[in-house]
Amino acid sequence: MAIIGSWLPPSRDHWELLTFLWQIFPLFTLIQWLSDFYPQGKTSIPSRLNLPGKYAWAVMETPGFVCVLYCMLTIPTTQGIEHLPAANWLMAALFSIHYIYRAIISPLFLNPSMSPIHPFIMLSALSFQVINGTCIGGYLAGYGPTTPQDWAGTMVRIQVGLVIFFAGFFGNMYHDDELREIRRAAARNQKRKAEAQGEKSKEGKVDKVYEMPQNGLFRLVLYPHFFCEWIEWCGFWIIGGWACVPARTFLINEVTTMTPRALAGRRWYVERFGKEKVGSRKAVIPGLI
User: Model pTM greater than 0.90?
Assistant: First the structure.
């Protein structure tokens, strides 16, 4: 059943058009180089429109893997495909694993708290996820490789890609948890202070606390979780191969939209903690930027 005519799931013609247009997305990210305005996380702003961070994050990040799985379940029948190759399902599973962690487990079950998110950010990210998920889902569901023969001779490439993907995935999780520990420590201190003063602690609410993380790649860069995510999607693209245009486009789009955010974040750290404390740490890629 189609949700939006021949767009979701997309017909082959619409998928090809969408995939082509998605490759020019980096042009739209140029505006981020002109302004540090980004009303989310540590740079969130007071606004009556703000949405609760945890739930807004889950809503805006979930559609990506949902679109991929929806395409996988609907497009094959329109193309006369009985069984998709195992490698197609492998890539769909990797994409889903990442976003189930990122969109559901991390914000709703692991994060002690999250700053509010402006609706502009939520709608922008949600649009990104729908388009990206549709491009990747269409490729894996019938508009890319459709037989085991299409994957012949790629076992080594898939294995290398898997190692790189999971290195990035676990690196991303590790550095996310380093950031969570700052909030968890703040929650423990907050609870101790409240108990010492005979007050009831604010359950589920943690005051904003920012520190300079020190472990792992945080010694070298301020946004290692961004860097590890790029490694992850590089591995994903390697699995799909050079012909997997949606995977390549996704990686490029992530790098072009997250790099200016990381550089703006570094300026935020310098403003808040001073150049001396930030030291030689780069923004996102060790030793480079």
Answer: yes
